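Moderator note: this is an archived Q&A kept for reference. The question asked for a predicted structure of one protein chain; the sequence and the answer are reproduced below.
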Amino acid sequence: MKPILAVTMGDPAGIGPEIIVKALASPRLWRACRPVVVGRLPVMQAAARASGSSIEFQPAGAAFPTATRSRCPLVETGPERDRIPPFGRAGAVGGRAAIAAITGAIRLALDRRVDAIVTAPISKEAIRAAGSPFPGHTEMLAALTGAKRHAMMLVGGPLRVSLATIHVPLAQVPSLITARGVREVVELTWDAVRRLGLRLADSKIAVCGLNPHAGEAGIMGDEERRVIAPVVRALAKKGLPVSGPYPADTIFFRAARGEFAAVVAMYHDQGLGPLKTLAFDTGVNLTLGLPIIRTSVDHGTAFDIAGKGLASAESLLAAVELAATMARNRRP
């Protein structure tokens, strides 16, 4: 049986509902899974009309109706009293709707009613306006699932990149590079490459340095020899196929040639810059360390083109395919 995937609508004022409708028109989605959309029915109906799609969304109760290419089950999440927000504008209404869809999908996954969740983009500004204490999807998912440790991995083209720090100001990064943090991300990355179905022989992990030239023997910073290198050596002694720290200006080229299965980057833009250069339209965000499988698009709400029929569903389709692969690998 194909895995059941819960697809959250994202921010209703952004491109999330539109790309879901477009993905539902693709044979790739139906080859990979049985979809269930989680969100507001009026929002998804409006997105279908705006996209010129004839697909219908059928409200789902305790049991999901059979999904077909013309009819998709939808789990309604509130707050129903809220109006549908206009396209292209971040606000508390959209933030509340996005949060409700995420929490609804998490419940479905924790109750094992779905095999994985795939999230459409949300607005950090909107969820903050709605009162969320979380800076983004990843932190929200970790807290709501009770994950003791978590990390973000981006998958796109030939690269798989995990992040030692995520949504923090660059000035704070050096103080957040700790032995415990680097060790946990490397261990989660090792678990992920196995769940992705890679051969063990192809599962080498490279760790980036923080500073230019990986510190140049301490001349350009000592985080490498003081924090990162000792962790790498200790994990390698335990049998993990990890090495580094490597200069960030060369290691992604080597990984793209297939020398490494994954790279652990020290901060957000260090890892995402190379990946988005090679796979801007097809990148997938994967949250590591959760008790559930979660993938997401690797782009934002694109408020500037929302409602205009211009958004691409390629990243969402890639996220669906990756979640389906991981769900199949997870089954006994």
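Archived answer notes: The first strand starts at residue 4 and ends at 8.
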